[in-house]
Amino acid sequence: MTKLGTKFLIAATFAATTAFSAGAAMATATQAQPVTKTIYVLADDMGLLGPDKQHHDSFLPSSFVLKAGQQVKLVFVNYDDMPHSFTAPGLHVNVIVKAATHKAGSDAVVPTETTYTFTPSKAGQFRWHCNFPCDKGDGAGWAMKASATGQDAVGYMAGYVVVM
Ligand SMILES: [Cu+2]
């Protein structure tokens, strides 16, 4: 083998080893990635209709399933120009969902993303509610009214996280 040939072989071996290591590192990183749960926060005409036929501030979905021990990234996409909260005391989660903004000089809403990553540790049903005095549109706070299960109407500004 010529000197040049040896150099080429070393370079090729190095490149192959590096490519393999990078691939292995990427596989590990993928395994550690949290699952993503996207939740939309809608208001005004986009908010769900209540039994009173009015639109109400709503989280969609308001109830969902997570896996114990699996890291999850909650992504809240807020189309309401008011903040909300995702408060689940049983999960030790209290996320302030930032308000949407407006396009300069127009009423067009620019949604704001708020992310929160955590790992639910134990199985169960955990209620969440919004801690803000919201839903002040046509429904005049209906979604926030006190009920037998506590603050807020499930399906709008409250719900359940089921951890399995
Ligand atoms: Cu709210």
Tell me the β content. Answer: 35-45%
Largest sheet: 4 strands, mixed
Question: According to CATH, what is the class of the largest domain?
Answer: Mainly Beta
Residue windows where pLDDT falls under 50 for at least 5 positions: none
How many DSSP-defined strands?
A: 15
In helices, the fraction of residues equals 10-25%
Sequence of strands across the biggest β-sheet: 4-1-6-11
Alpha-beta classification: alpha+beta
The dominant shape is globular
**How many domain modules?**
2
Ligands in the model, by name, code or SMILES, are: copper (II) ion
Radius of gyration: 24 Å
Secondary structure tally, helices: 1
> N- to C-terminal separation?
62 Å
Mean pLDDT metric = 83
Second-tier CATH architecture of the largest domain: Sandwich
Helix and strand layout, with pairings?
Blueprint: H1 3-32, E1 35-42, E2 48-49, E3 55-56, E4 58-60, E5 64-66, E6 72-78, E7 84-88, E8 93-97, E9 101-102, E10 109-110, E11 112-118, E12 124-129, E13 146-147, E14 150-151, E15 158-163
Parallel strand pairs: 1-6, 5-15
Antiparallel strand pairs: 1-4, 2-3, 6-11, 7-8, 9-10, 12-15, 13-14
This protein binds copper (II) ion.
What does the model show?
- By secondary structure, this protein is of the alpha+beta class.
- The protein has 2 domains: 1-33; 34-163, Sandwich (Immunoglobulin-like), CATH 2.60.40.420.
- Helix content is 18%, strand content 38%.
- It has 1 helix and 15 strands.
- Strands 4-1-6-11 form a 4-stranded mixed β-sheet, with no helix packed on it. A 3-stranded mixed β-sheet has the order 5-15-12, with no helix packed on it. Strands 2-3 form a two-stranded antiparallel sheet.
- Strand 9 and strand 10 (109-110) form a beta hairpin.
- The longest helix is centred in the first third of the chain and has 30 residues, at 3-32.
- The mean pLDDT is 83.
